[in-house]
Structure formats: C-alpha cells, structure tokens
C-alpha cells in the first residue's frame, strides 16, 4: 500500500481536522473508534432525510413501486465497486443478519464441521454455536490464533487444523470455514485470498466475514472468489447504520433464504432479498450518497491516508506509552485500525476490562477506544479516519498514559 | 404513516446516536428501548419482559417459527386468508422439516364470528378423526386479516384452539392502535403486532409477545452475542442498525395520548363503517362483512366489475399504475369469494367526503373496464 503524507501546515491536503465540518461531531468530541459503529457525513444525513420525506408523501407509491429501482441501482453501483455480478448481491441490515442468512439456510448434515478462528467476531461464533446446538452432530473446529502472527504462520495454523482433522478419519468433513478479512478485536488484516484458496483445496466452502472490509481495503470479489461474503457499508463506507452487502455465489443461491421469510419465497435469490418487509430503507439508500461523498476524493486517496495515519499514529502512541503495537513491523496487517499495548503492570487489576475503562474514558476524557486482553497484554484498538490527524493520536496516547499510570498506582 | 411530532421524535434519536455513537450504543440505547417496552407493556396489559421489539411482523413470525422444534407428524394450522409472507414462512418450515405439513381452513367471507370459529373447529375435528398419528401443533391466526380485512373473533378462537392443546400464534399485525389489546385477557402463546401501521410510529417498529413459559425456546432470526443469556438480551440488540424507528414508538404514544385511544379508535371505526356504506351506495354494491364489529378501521367494498376474469385484473400492475398516475390515490384491490373488492382504510385525517370521492373514482375506473369488450 502506498503511503500518503500526513497533513502539515504547509501541505494540509483534503483530510484531517478540516473534515470535521463535513461530519456531525459536537465540538468537544473526537471519534477514535470509527470501527465499532461508524458515522456518516452531513450530506449523507441530508439524503436520508430526503428519502424519508419522499416516502411519506405517498407510502404506497414508494413501497410498491419507486423504492425498487433505487435499491437496484445501489446493487448495480456496488457490483461495480466490488467487481462481481449484481445478481450475486443482496442488501441486508448488517453482518449479524448476513451471517445468519447463510448459516441458517445451509443444509448441514450429521458429520459436518464448521471451522472458525478464535479471533472471529463473538456474534459469528455464537451463531455457529447455535447451529451446532440445533443440528445433529454438527460441530465447530476452532483454530486458536494469537497475535503477533505473520500471515505465513496464520496460514500454517489453519492448514495444520485442516490436516489434523483429515487425520481423524472419523467420517466427518469440514463443510464450511468462516474467516475474517479484517478481524475486530484484535484488529488484523488476514491473508484472505490464501485462506480462501487453502480452504477450497480441502473441499470446504468459505464464508468471508468482511464486516470491516468495504471502504477500508479494496474489495475485488472477482479475484477473491469466496462462496459467501458479507460487509458492512455502515462501518468504513460512510453510509448510515443498518446497511450491509451480502454476496452469495450463483451456484449456492438456490439454498439461501433471508432470515425472515417474506412474500417472495422461492421466486429467485434477487426477488427474495429485494424486500425485507415493511421498514425504513433509508439507511440502505444512504449507500448512494456515501459513494458519492467518497468519489470526491477517490478510494485510493482515502484508503492510503487512513492507513498511513493508523501506522504512524500507532507508532506515536506506542512511543508515548513505552509499549508496542500488536502487529509490530507488519504494516500490512494494519489497515485503518491499530492495536496499541497498554503498559498496565497487573493484568488482573479489577478495572482492567472494557466496561470499567470505558466509563473512565467517557466520563473523564470524553473519548473511547475499546480495551481488550489478547495474549499476554492489554491492548486498545484505535481507528484512523479522514477527520483525524497525527496529533489526535498523540493526545490519545497521553490520555491512555494518564489512565494506566493511575491504575498502576492504585494496584 | 406518522405525524410530524413523531418524525421529530425519530430525528431526535437519530441525531443523538451521531453525537457519540459509542456512548449511545454501549450505554444509552438499551435503557431507551426498555422504556419503550415498559410503555407498551402498560398499553397491552402484559409484563414488559414478555415483549421484544423487532422490525416488523415478517421478522416476528420468522423468529418464532424458525425457533420452534417441529418433529415429524407436526401440522401447522392456518386460515386461507392469512398474509402471504406468513404463508410463505409456514411453507418454508414445511420444506425444511421432515413430514411437517399445513392444515388449511378455507375462509370465504361473508361469515359470522360463529361460522369462523365453527370452520376452524370442524377442521380440527376432521383432523382428529383421521387418527394418523399426526398432531396439529401450532395455529397461525389473524386477529385482523389483511386482504380481505376482517376482525376475527380472536378470544373465542384462542380459547377453542387451546382447548385442543394447540399452540396459538396470533398475527395481530394490524391490531395495535386499531383495536384495544389486552394480553392478560387474551393470553395467546405468541403475538406479533406492527406499531408502524395503526399506532403512528415509523416504519420498522413492531412488538413480539412471548410469554415466559416459551422464552427459552425462542431466538431471534439473527443470532448474536447474547445467545443463551436471556430472552431479553437476545432480543434487545439486533446488531448494528438504526433504532430510531423503534424508539419513535415513544413519540407515537405521546401523540395519541392527546386524544385518547377510545376517541381515535371510535372515530376511525365509525368512519370506516359509514364510509364503506356510502361507497357501496355510489357503486351500487355492498361491503364484505355482514356485521359492523367485523370492521375495524378497514372496510372492503365490492367493485362492480362484470367480468372477474378481465385481463387487466390478472396482475396488480394495471390498476396500481392507473390509480397512482391518473387519480393520485391507492387502495389495495383483490379477488375474494368470486368477487372483486377494494380495501379502504379510514384514519383521523379522513372524512366521509373522502370516501365519496373514492367511490366516484372507483366507479369511473370500473365503468371503463366494463365498457371494454373482453
């Protein structure tokens, strides 16, 4: 990935604090955790309001007729964006729905095994538990993953798990593997192309959990060729919460139905997913203005800025804290999110948990970054964005230093 | 649709989320949702912990049906007038389970309340007489059906079905805000109702009732991180989405309190009855339901089409386009019992003269179709 120069007084570029005026932040609030719930620019909010008003002018005209071409246009634009056939795309509420859509549709049989990584998102792994609880002799194969871990070592771990399972020779088969493209906590970019190929070579279907992918890394499904793929537009693409994109390869579409069966059951994948019952579709429609907003700068410019900032910002924070980043020198494993180790002396400190640390950060400093235990350390995950600059990371580093110093003193 | 005050309420929630998304989702959202459930529990006479806020009836139906563990020999009873999505969901269950089948009760209006209950009970008794080892496990029953719109004798139906040991899922999609709901009195096994229909909240806000005795069985259609912790937590977070539609229920209840439920329901009902009669007069026809109490706020008026197999009635396209583009209005229109009907919804923003106007529009539309040589 090419690195972008971060803003300086002499060369401010289009990104940095000047972007704040395009967003909805109050004066005294800095968003360091874009990765959890995202946010959207003012122009996207204006579009949402416009669609909501349009709907109320004539709800029948909208819901029976005019909504559909707009939804169709979104799939057309996204198909171009992610390089696939529009007929393989469905617009859903979020990744949780997308994961359940596929997992609750697939006809598992006794002896099927589902492979996951231990760093998979909690809701995903819980959904796999549900499948195992409700289907006879369907079990999970979990690959333990602890960072720091190079791409090569991660692939080896997964392959070892596949081999070990093969050697069991107990009649079971790994039916499906679910792999993160960019994991959540800790956040790491995975070697997803190699993972897809590896799992395919062992005869497994692959579901790529790209919840964090679109808008953070270039997505090329024509190149990646997963069986299933889900990504949240409301994370890094700047659309409103409740807008995600599900990809189901044509060969599997006859098996896959929405989580809530609707009026068009068995009339074809595109029809079944075209309408999810009565709801406010303006979050999904906001994808259009999000794409338009980003076009001003271009994906490359946005992605290379946020990536550079995450890398440099992570280094700056680690220096202030006297620690390290989770992925060390492996800048390719960082996209827009960086995990910085926190210098807490006693990991069993009663306040060394997300909730207590959150209260301190929000109430005292009016900021938030999630803190979590991974391996032998406590880390915090920071999200770079176009409205942030390097000195924001420096400020954050100093805040965390103060918080941890306080905890270390109170042990 | 919803009022301006409800729209403001919805936007207030929408804006609050953007001020600090982490604080909103991690701290403030759940208490706000709990407050809505508390208000609805009072409104519906039940315990707030028996309620789950979901996006719509489609979601609520799938939550229950896809959670129940059907076994071979189970039958699901439904009325022929049930809503299409519900029918599809039942079909999906039958498709994905071994030997689970539908038992359908043919319902052709006009029928009295007693006749409806009788039809259902007769279907059950006919099934029992077969003695083939199968059992009717669950019944899907409309409280107020969609097309045709008919208020069913719901208490009698629930009691009768339960007396046969059948679980009852009441599809009350149209009910809240159109008829008073007392869940303590009705005591169904499951009930789903859309707040965004007659309660004036924003689209994407519905409430699912699951009494405590069944809660351990029922999971949302989308399993999330609270799986197996409790019914309340499993249903209180549907993943990242915009919750302002659901929260707008607060604004809707506030708006309605100004007038009171009785006043609103009474006005809408009387207008539906009188409006329906007036339209039938203009069209030279009749309304579908023999008794006034079978009309809530929606009335079905017969359209005097001469040829019910007219090619322009084959799909919905022709009439939908004509009504929207030429007359700038819309009412669902459908075949039932060998006749053709329009379903009209009364509301607090309508008056009798609106129904008269509608009657004249439909007369013009049907006269034109009748004049065509088909």
Automatic annotation (TrEMBL), chain A:
One Pfam family this sequence matches: Aminotran_5
All residue ranges annotated as the Aminotransferase class V domain in the record: 41-377
Claim: Methyltransferase is one of the keywords in the record: no
Taxonomy, superkingdom: Eukaryota
Cited InterPro entries: Aminotrans_V_dom, PyrdxlP-dep_Trfase, PyrdxlP-dep_Trfase_major, PyrdxlP-dep_Trfase_small
SUPFAM superfamilies: PLP-dependent transferases (SSF53383)
Protein name: Aminotransferase class V domain-containing protein
Keyword list, A-Z: Pyridoxal phosphate
TrEMBL record, chain B:
Organism domain of life: Eukaryota
Gene3D superfamilies according to UniProt: Type I PLP-dependent aspartate aminotransferase-like (Major domain)
Positions in coiled-coil regions: none
Matching Pfam families: Aminotran_5
Keywords for this protein: Pyridoxal phosphate
Domain Aminotransferase class V: 28-303
PANTHER family noted in UniProt: HERCYNYLCYSTEINE SULFOXIDE LYASE, L-CYSTEINE DESULFHYDRASE
Name listed for the protein in its UniProt record: Aminotransferase class V domain-containing protein
């Amino acid at each position: 990935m090419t690195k972008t120069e971060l803003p300086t007084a002499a060369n401010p570029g289009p990104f940095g604090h000047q972007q704040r005026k395009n967003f909805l932040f109050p004066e005294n609030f800095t968003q360091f955790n874009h990765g959890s719930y995202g946010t959207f620019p003012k122009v996207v909010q204006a579009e949402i309001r416009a669609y909501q008003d349009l709907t109320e002018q004539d709800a029948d005209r909208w819901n029976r007729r005019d909504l559909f071409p707009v939804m169709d246009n979104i799939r057309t634009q996204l198909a171009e964006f992610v390089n696939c056939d529009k007929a393989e795309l469905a617009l859903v509420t979020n990744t949780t729905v997308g994961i359940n859509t596929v997992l609750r549709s697939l006809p598992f049989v006794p002896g099927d095994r589902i492979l996951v990584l231990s760093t998979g998102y909690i809701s995903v792994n819980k959904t796999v538990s549900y499948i195992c609880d409700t289907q006879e002799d369907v079990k999970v194969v979990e690959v333990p993953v602890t960072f720091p871990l190079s791409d090569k070592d991660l692939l080896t771990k997964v392959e070892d798990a596949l081999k070990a399972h093969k050697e069991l020779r107990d009649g079971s088969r790994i039916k499906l593997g679910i792999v993160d493209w960019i994991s959540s906590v800790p956040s790491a970019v995975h070697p997803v192309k190699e993972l897809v190929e590896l799992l395919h070579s062992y005869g497994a279907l692959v579901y790529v959990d790209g919840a964090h992918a679109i808008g953070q890394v270039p997505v090329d499904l024509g190149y990646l060729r997963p069986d299933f793929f889900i990504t949240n537009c409301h994370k890094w693409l700047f659309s409103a919460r409740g807008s995600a994109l599900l990809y189901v390869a044509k060969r599997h579409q006859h098996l896959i139905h929405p989580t809530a069966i609707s009026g068009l059951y068995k009339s074809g994948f595109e029809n079944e997913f075209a309408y999810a019952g009565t709801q406010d579709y303006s979050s999904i429609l906001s994808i259009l203005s999000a794409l338009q907003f980003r076009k001003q700068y271009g994906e490359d410019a946005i992605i290379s800025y946020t990536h550079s900032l995450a890398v440099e910002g992570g280094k700056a924070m680690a220096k202030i804290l006297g620690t390290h980043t989770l992925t060390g020198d492996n800048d390719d494993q960082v996209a827009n999110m960086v995990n910085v180790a926190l210098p807490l002396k006693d990991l069993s400190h009663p306040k060394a948990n997300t909730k207590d640390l959150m209260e301190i950060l929000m109430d005292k400093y009016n900021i938030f970054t999630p803190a979590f235990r991974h391996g032998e350390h406590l880390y915090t995950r920071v999200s770079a964005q176009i409205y942030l600059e390097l000195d924001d990371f420096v400020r954050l580093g100093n805040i965390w230093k103060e918080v941890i110093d306080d905890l270390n003193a109170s042990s | 649709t919803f009022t301006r005050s409800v729209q403001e309420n919805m936007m207030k929630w929408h804006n609050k989320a953007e001020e600090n998304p982490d604080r909103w989702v991690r701290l403030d959202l759940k208490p706000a949702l709990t407050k809505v459930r508390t208000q609805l529990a009072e409104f519906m006479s039940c315990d707030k912990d028996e309620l789950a806020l979901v996006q719509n009836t489609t979601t609520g139906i799938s939550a229950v049906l896809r959670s129940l563990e059907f076994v071979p020999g189970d039958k699901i009873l439904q009325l022929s007038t049930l809503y299409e999505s519900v029918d599809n969901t039942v079909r999906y269950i039958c498709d994905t389970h071994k030997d689970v089948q539908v038992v359908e009760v043919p319902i052709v209006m006009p029928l009295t309340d007693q006749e409806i209950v009788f039809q259902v009970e007769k279907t059950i008794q006919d099934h029992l007489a077969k003695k083939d080892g199968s059992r009717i496990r669950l019944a899907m029953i409309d409280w107020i059906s969609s097309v045709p719109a008919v208020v069913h004798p719901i208490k009698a139906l629930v009691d009768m079905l339960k007396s046969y040991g059948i679980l009852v899922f009441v599809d009350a999609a149209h009910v809240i805000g159109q008829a008073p709901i007392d869940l303590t009195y009705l005591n169904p096994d499951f009930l789903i109702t859309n707040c965004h229909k007659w309660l004036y909240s924003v689209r994407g806000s519905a409430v699912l009732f699951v009494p405590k005795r069944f809660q351990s069985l029922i999971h949302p259609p989308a399993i999330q991180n609270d799986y197996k912790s409790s019914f309340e937590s499993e249903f209180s977070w549907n993943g990242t989405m915009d919750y302002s539609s659901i929260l707008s229920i607060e604004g809707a209840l506030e708006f309605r309190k100004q007038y009171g439920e009785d006043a609103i329901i009474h006005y809408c009902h009387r207008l539906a009855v009188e409006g329906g009669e007036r339209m039938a007069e203009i069209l030279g026809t009749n309304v579908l339901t023999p008794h006034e109490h079978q009309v809530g706020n929606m009335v079905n008026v017969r359209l005097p089409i001469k040829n019910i197999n007219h090619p322009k009635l084959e799909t919905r396209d022709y009439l939908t386009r004509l009504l929207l583009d030429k007359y700038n209005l819309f009412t669902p229109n459908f075949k039932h019992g060998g006749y053709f009907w329009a379903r009209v919804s009364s509301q607090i923003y309508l008056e009798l003269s609106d129904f008269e106007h509608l009657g004249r529009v439909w007369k013009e539309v049907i006269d034109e179709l009748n004049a065509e040589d088909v």
